[in-house]
Amino acid sequence: MNDLETLYRQVIMDHYKNPRNKGLLSSSGYKTIHIKNPTCGDDITIQSLVEDGIVKDVRHDGTGCSICCSSASVMSETLIGKTKEDAEKISEAYINMLTNKEYDENVDLEEAIVYQGVRKFPARVKCASIAWKAFQGTLESE
Ligand code: ZN
Question: Is 112 exposed, middle or buried (0-12, 13-18, 19+ CB in 10 A)?
Answer without folding.
Answer: buried
